[in-house]
TrEMBL record:
Function noted in UniProt: IF-3 binds to the 28S ribosomal subunit and shifts the equilibrium between 55S ribosomes and their 39S and 28S subunits in favor of the free subunits, thus enhancing the availability of 28S subunits on which protein synthesis initiation begins.
InterPro entries: T_IF-3_C_sf (IPR036788), T_IF-3_N_sf (IPR036787), Translation_initiation_fac_3 (IPR001288), Translation_initiation_fac_3_C (IPR019815), Translation_initiation_fac_3_N (IPR019814)
Source species of the chain: Channa striata (Snakehead murrel)
Record's keyword terms, sorted: Initiation factor, Mitochondrion, Protein biosynthesis, Transit peptide
Domain of life: Eukaryota
Protein name: Translation initiation factor IF-3, mitochondrial
Main location per the UniProt record: mitochondrion
Any one GO CC term of the record: mitochondrion
Chain intervals for the UniProt region annotation (Disordered): 56-77, 239-272
Polar residues bias locations: 254-272
Similarity field: Belongs to the IF-3 family.
One BP term from GO: mitochondrial translational initiation
Length: 272
């Protein structure tokens, strides 16, 4: 029993001494006074609670981390001959699904064809692996690096402003600067202002003609348009995409063939 309980019992006992003799009341009062001034009651009684305290706090188990494939970390590499799973799903080097195979059979194919094995997805059951050559792995690593560079590097927007009355030499210098920025994968905002005393007519058409003078292929984030109540024209250039470059190559390769066919038809008409 704690000291608080003992004091409570004694205090009520003292109050009830109206029916008991004065001697007991005097003894009880002396006991209370003496217990307050001395250490007659053990300290463990005074400090310990009536019941044992229970710690309700429970340690929350750490959440399980989801296993990530090597592609999630931006890497791809061969796992070698140490395949931890017995049964795995295998994709051939050409992308064909070979189905579920035992790892010993996969290792035998690797030895016979000189291929490597790459983990594609560990979360599936069974895990998915792909047979790849060293060249294929190297190419995939390069692709992943390019993707990481594209995500990590923020696009910078450079700005260039000049008037419609700019000299041809100065214009050529500024266009060279624009080409340099585009080679560094920057975007370029070009603003063409109307010159002093010059009419602000067809500034968007003039700006488009200036862009066509550039020696490199460009793409548009925003095509030339009139701004500032017709007093200027603005466009935003970007480096061409891979699709645009591929289409340009096709157009260039198709152009000589069409010229040859037209020349041949001209010769045949002349012979006739």
């Amino acid at each position: 029993m704690s000291a608080a309980c003992v004091r409570w019992v004694l205090s009520h006992t003292v109050r009830a001494t109206c029916a008991i003799g004065p001697g007991f009341r005097t003894w009880a009062s002396r006991f209370l006074q003496h217990s307050e001034g001395s250490n007659i009651i053990p300290g463990s009684w005074r400090l310990s609670p009536l019941c044992t305290a229970v710690d309700d706090t429970q340690q929350t188990p750490a959440p399980k981390r989801k296993k990530q494939t090597p592609q999630a970390h931006g890497t791809i590499s061969s796992v070698g001959r140490k395949i931890p799973q017995r049964q795995i799903q295998v994709i051939s080097e050409t992308g064909e699904n070979l189905g579920i195979m035992h790892r010993s059979d996969v290792i035998r194919i690797m030895d016979e064809q000189g291929l490597k094995i790459v983990l594609l997805s560990e979360n599936k059951d069974p895990p998915v692996y792909r047979l790849m050559s060293g060249k294929q792995i190297h190419e995939e690593q390069l692709k992943l690096r390019e993707k990481q560079k594209g995500k990590a590097a923020p696009v910078q927007v450079k700005e260039l402003t000049f008037s419609s009355g700019i000299a041809s030499h100065d214009l050529s210098t500024k266009l060279k600067q624009v080409e340099s920025w585009l080679e560094k994968k920057h975007h370029v905002r070009i603003t063409l202002r109307s010159g002093r005393g010059e009419p602000a007519n067809n500034l968007d058409t003039t700006l488009e003609q200036i862009v066509q003078q550039m020696e490199v292929m460009v793409g548009f984030v925003s095509k030339p348009k009139v701004v500032r109540d017709g007093q200027a024209a603005m466009c935003i250039l970007r480096p061409p995409s891979a699709k645009e470059l591929s289409q340009r190559e096709k157009n260039l390769s198709a152009a000589p063939q069409s010229d040859t066919e037209s020349n041949a038809s001209t010769v045949s008409n002349t012979d006739t």
